[in-house]
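Dear colleagues,

As part of the handover before I leave the project, I'm documenting each prediction I ran so the next person doesn't have to rerun anything. This entry is a single chain, and its sequence is reproduced below.
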Amino acid sequence: MQRMSFVITGGLGGIGQAVARHFVAQGARVVITHRPGTDPVSMAGFGGNAEAAPLDVASERGWQDLVDGVVERHGKLDGLVNLAGVFLPGIPFEQMTMAQWRAHMDVNLDGTFLGCRTATAAMRKTGGGVIVNCASTLAEIMLEDAAAYCVSKAAVVALTRLAAKAGAKYGVRVNAVLPGAVDTPMLWRNLAPGQTREELLDMITGLHPIGRIATPDDVARAIFFLCDPASSFVTGALLAVDGGQLVG
């Protein structure tokens, strides 16, 4: 990945930072995005090939400006990793508001679509590239109190397959990872009132036949595999990184 240029959305998240470290270690140039108005992650731990940029993933103009800037500075956009996501747990289906529903769709689905569309348009002009979307095992496992998240991630699965078919003729590969539970701040938002972290961890671990939850590095390594030029015949793939959750 020497000198290849990547955009990674959701740079404040645990998975995003792990992906950026893996890519920079392999010589890639990385732009890590964060929500406008939030403090960007410190670039000190990534080396000189990483930079931060604000991005509202639901903004068409924001996406276009970001990708145009990467192409202007680096000559092309080689890869995009769509990790920005919203997860508001514990909302009973019949109590979910339209605002809560839209908050998930705006980021998880619309943001991923805009990223795929904008990146594909840029990549087709420069000989291709690779996109990895972040779906979830909850694209297939329906939780009543996480309806919007489940539906948005199921839609990301469909979007990934469609974008892979549309991009193939331009040399643009599009794949998705479906993580199970990952040890990030998003996971611990599932803590119920009065529940300890140990109790939640025991419950969630029991859903993964391999006997543990994932680390951010577990997911980062899978994403790296999909982005690696050596995986040039892999597109439209849905890679579960879930410790066997979907087959358990």
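The first strand starts at residue 5 and ends at 8. The mean pLDDT is 93.

All the best with the project,
I.
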